[in-house]
UniProtKB/TrEMBL annotation:
A GO biological process held by the record: organic phosphonate metabolic process
A Pfam family: PhnG
Name of this protein: Phosphonate C-P lyase system protein PhnG
Keywords attached to this entry: Lyase
GO molecular function: lyase activity
Top-rank taxon: Bacteria
């Protein structure tokens, strides 16, 4: 399992609404995973970069929830913005199941593909809304 693939599915799960995860995930989730860390909330420091690529600086803190579980031989971790511990627990369970080679392709097709498409559509819609409110400024040259 390469890191970029895992990062992709974790990003999709973390940016998907919990209501959608509750629709898709439960049929495949185990009844009682072994919890290494039940959901807990805390603060995390966000960093920015001057000009996007310059020196790092502390931008501020954000509330996050995290959870970790073990299903079979696989350990799953879930992190999500905000204080919704249930969301972090669902992500952790999904992460553990997605690491299982026997179930990986089936779960990617059932979960990640539709969630990624929905996420892409939500981002495109926000982009269209922002573009619709764009204001064009122009400069008039005086004295010519």
């Amino acid at each position: 399992m390469d890191t970029s693939t895992r990062q992709r599915w974790l990003a999709v799960l973390a940016n998907s609404p919990i209501e959608r995860l509750l629709e898709l995930l439960p049929p495949a989730l185990p009844a009682a995973p072994r919890w290494l860390r039940r959901a807990e909330s805390g603060l995390m420091m966000l960093q920015g970069r001057s000009g996007g690529s310059g020196a790092r600086f502390n931008l501020g803190e954000i509330s996050v929830s995290r959870a970790s579980c073990q299903i079979g031989d696989h350990v799953g971790h879930g992190w999500v913005r905000g204080g919704d511990g249930r969301h972090a627990e669902l992500i952790a369970q999904a992460d553990a199941l997605l690491q299982d080679p026997a179930r990986h392709s089936q779960l990617m097709e059932q979960w990640i593909t539709p969630l990624a498409a929905e996420l892409s559509e939500r981002r495109a819609e926000r982009s269209r809304e922002a573009a619709a409110s764009k204001v064009e400024f122009f400069t008039m040259v005086r004295g010519e």
